[in-house]
UniProtKB/TrEMBL annotation:
Pfam families: Abhydrolase_1 (PF00561). Transmembrane segments: none annotated. It comes from Oscillatoriales cyanobacterium SpSt-418. The keyword Transmembrane helix does not apply. SUPFAM superfamilies: alpha/beta-Hydrolases (SSF53474). This is Alpha/beta hydrolase.
Length: 272
């Protein structure tokens, strides 16, 4: 039987942060992609907790059940709130896993607060480039708009129908999508600005690092015109001591679709 995962809130000066926590042992903090929430790790958390880990997943400000921040949030702001949660929980140092947006935030935590990070797992970091940055800013300006006829509901349902795998999982993703409607896409703005200097920032990462890519995920980003697949290697070039693992068939939804395979790779790295 897997350890129970509980939910709680942290009060901060910018609003409440919702997080999930369970298990006992060395901490592992999980940071999600945009526009998801800690629900992205619902399948993975019990697997990590079963390996004698205290596993924590937070909803970044502006996502899930966390409050909307009072201003546009930068990646540095998101890193600061991750540290605030660790402080609240009395955690001096944690291993850290981030996916997409969460990976940029995780990298910044390792740069700005190196003493707080043990091992680092960066998943699906995209090399956006100039064209990708332009596309991110277009997406930010367009935003998630509530349509009077409700057509935005079906648009979000169809957005990932090619690879989501099941109606139940798509429903969970759409619920997270809808919590972002009517508000700025905070993380899109944050990553759009951060990725300009991400390579330079990541060069100072000293923590043992696992760089994990889902190949279908990478190809989908190229299909969407966000990031060329080959440009992702800026991460392994910036962090030459990083261990690289590529998962064939890993989609944008891979944290939910292949948790056992991901957990095996991550746990092996954490135990090295």
């Amino acid at each position: 039987m897997y350890p129970k995962i509980k939910r709680a809130f942290l009060d901060t000066e910018d609003g409440q942060i919702h997080y999930r926590i369970g298990g006992e042992g060395k901490p592992l903090l999980l940071l999600h992609m945009n526009p998801r929430s800690s629900d992205e790790y619902r399948e993975l958390m019990p697997l990590f907790a079963a390996q004698r880990r205290q596993v924590i997943a937070m909803d970044l400000m502006g996502f899930g059940d966390s409050d909307k921040p009072p201003r546009m949030y930068s990646v540095a702001d998101y890193a600061k709130t991750a540290i605030a949660l660790l402080d609240k929980l009395g955690i001096e140092q944690t291993d850290l896993l981030g996916n997409h947006t969460g990976a940029f935030v995780s990298g910044e935590v390792a740069v700005a607060y190196p003493d707080r990070v043990g091992k680092l797992i960066l998943c699906n970091v995209a090399g956006f480039g100039e064209a990708g940055q332009t596309e991110l800013m277009r997406l930010f300006k367009e935003g998630f708009v509530i349509q009077p006829d409700g057509s935005h509901l079906m648009k979000r349902w169809l957005a990932r129908s090619r690879y989501v795998g099941s109606a139940e999982l798509n429903h969970r993703w759409v619920l997270d999508d809808l919590k972002c409607f009517g508000h700025p896409l905070y993380a899109v703005w944050a990553v759009g600005h951060y990725c300009i200097d991400a390579a330079e920032r990541f060069r100072s990462i000293q923590a043992p690092t696992l760089i994990l890519w889902g190949i279908d995920d990478v190809q989908e980003f190229e299909h969407l015109g966000l990031a060329l697949a080959k440009d992702r290697y800026f991460v392994s070039q910036a962090i030459p001591h990083g261990k690289v693992v590529e998962l064939q068939g890993g989609t944008i939804c891979m944290m939910n679709q292949m948790p056992e395979e991901i957990a095996k790779v991550v746990i092996e790295f954490l135990h090295e």
